[in-house]
Specification:
Its EC number is 3.1.3.3. It holds the Pfam family Hydrolase. One of its GO terms (molecular function) is magnesium ion binding. Pathway: Amino-acid biosynthesis; L-serine biosynthesis; L-serine from 3-phospho-D-glycerate: step 3/3. There is one protein chain. The protein is α/β, with parallel strands linked by helices. It has 2 domains: about 85-240, no CATH class; about 240-465, HAD superfamily/HAD-like (Rossmann fold). The protein is about 35% helix and about 15% strand. The strands form 3 sheets. A 6-stranded parallel β-sheet has the order 7-6-5-10-11-12, sandwiched between helices. α6 (about 155-170) runs antiparallel to α8 (about 215-225) and α10 (about 255-260) packs antiparallel against α11 (about 265-280). The longest helix has 14 residues, at about 380-395. The model is unreliable at about 10-15 and about 100-110 (pLDDT under 50).
């Protein structure tokens, strides 16, 4: 080959200019190299912006506003009419429950060599069951990539930005959203952040109930390992006056009827019925009678013995003391049994205790395996009725009520209350409840009424003085 021909062949370097920007300015005329810096600025900048040839002239001590505003969005005045509705989203980082406890080393620098990704499964709260074998459908779609282990095990700034972007995409037709936020536990690496945004989406296109269960928010929760609780902002969100609680697996960590069943060796049979009833698979009243029938012959003093094994849920004492200090009326409405409900109410300073009554054989002082016929069964409808009647008795609007429970027999009560919270609930209940939380401490409930950590500490100090 002729060496002269090879020397004349254009090379990659010869095809490029000295400027990457000039190479890619396809829709703008190139700027002659002969221009000086002043001519370049006049060409590039908006003619409406003042050009200062000497930024420190005439007075170097005087700071002048350039008039340039840096923003992710087009900046313009976006005043909202007085009285525009607002929605509060409380974000809780689930620090005790990572999405992927076993991370692949390629996915996270926190993972050690040899770690593997956990087997795919249905996320808790997204289906009536998380057992893959019981879902006769096509395999679930891959879960969103977990981002909290990459950007911070808390509600990070990027997490918050992503949430605001998610909110911006929801309204139809599109409308600019005004937002503000505050950290409720700590400013540095917060676990709980409250975001207020307005206006809400047009209810004709997206109702508030549908917004709470929107798949975009569900995906955001999965990506960032957070839970989002949405509430309409208003004075009654922050100022409630009545709180009602389920007992088993809510204020206490036990299922009382299962504990009784241990005494006579039928725990397995009773537990299976209890689980199906709490998941809504069985009629509650019928299942309760069936379980109670298995307790025939148990000594009537079993409730005294159970008090030593009952574990009060983390944060329950502190929550009840704080609510009491704020002037709340409180009630425990339980599908369990009256003796323990009354004992728990005494322990926590609760005003009302209503539960089921077991019939006792006065001769043998044992349980007969039946319920007292003159007393109503505390099922879902009865819990809702009790919530309404206690509120009316104390002249409290239903919008100023709070209800917390975990079972299917709590759903009617949760939907009737001003704020209904499914606490560490069964999967079906989490799907159907207005809101749900799966934290470690019941004190998280206080964040839902707008209290931050400083408020909670102040309430704790005040309750000790009472």
């Amino acid at each position: 080959m002729d060496s002269r021909a090879s020397r004349q062949r254009p090379s990659l370097g010869q095809m490029r200019s000295n400027s990457f920007i000039q190479d890619h300015q396809q829709y703008k005329p190139p700027i002659p190299i002969s221009q000086n810096i002043g001519e370049v600025l006049e060409t590039q900048l908006d003619e409406s912006l003042p050009i200062l040839t000497n930024p420190i002239h005439p007075n170097p001590q005087r700071v002048q506003d350039s008039g340039v505003i840096h923003s992710l969005f087009h900046h313009h005045a976006n005043p909202l009419p007085q009285g525009t509705a607002r929605i509060v989203a409380t974000l809780f980082y689930k620090s005790s429950k990572p999405v992927h406890p076993n991370l692949h080393p390629d996915a996270s620098f926190n993972a050690a060599l040899g770690h593997t990704l956990q087997a795919p499964k249905v996320p808790e709260g997204s289906a009536p069951t998380d057992d893959m074998e019981k879902i006769p459908r096509e395999p679930p779609a891959p879960e969103p990539e977990p981002l909290d282990h990459l950007y911070g095990a808390h509600v990070s700034q990027l997490c918050l930005t992503n949430f605001l972007q998610t909110l911006e995409q929801l309204p139809t037709p599109y409308q600019r959203t005004n937002t503000s936020h505050r950290c409720l536990d700590r400013e540095d690496q917060p676990r709980v952040v409250e975001v207020t945004f307005s206006p809400p989406p047009d209810p004709e296109y997206l109702s508030f109930a549908d917004l709470r269960k929107h798949e975009s928010i569900w995906r955001f929760e999965r990506e960032w390992n957070v839970e989002v609780v949405l509430q309409n902002e208003g004075v009654f969100r922050r100022h409630k006056r009545l709180a009602v609680f389920d007992m088993d697996s809510t204020l206490i960590q036990n299922e009382v009827i299962d504990e009784i069943a241990k005494f006579i060796g039928v725990e397995k049979e009773v537990s299976e019925i209890t689980e199906r009833a709490m998941n809504g698979e069985l009629d509650f009243s019928a299942s309760l009678k069936e379980r109670v029938g298995l307790l025939k012959g148990v000594p009537a003093d079993v409730f005294e013995k159970l008090k030593s094994v009952i574990t009060i849920a983390p944060g329950a004492r502190e929550l009840c003391r704080a609510l009491k200090t704020l002037g709340y009326k409180m009630a425990v409405l339980s599908g369990g049994f009256q003796p323990l409900a009354e004992w728990l109410a005494e322990q926590l300073g609760i005003d009302y205790a209503v539960a089921n009554h077991l019939e006792i054989d006065e001769t043998t002082q044992t349980l007969t395996g039946r319920l007292v016929e003159s007393k109503p069964i505390i099922d879902a409808a009865q819990k809702r009725a009790l919530l309404t009647s206690i509120a009316a008795e104390n002249n409290i609007p239903i919008s100023q009520t709070l209800a917390v429970g975990d079972g299917a027999n709590d759903l009617l009560m949760l939907h009737a209350a001003g704020l209904g919270v499914a606490w560490r609930a069964k999967s079906k209940v989490q799907l159907e409840a207005p809101t749900r939380l799966n934290g470690e401490s019941l004190l998280d409930i206080l964040h839902l009424i707008g209290l931050d950590n400083e408020d909670i500490i102040e309430l704790s100090a005040a309750s000790k003085m009472l």
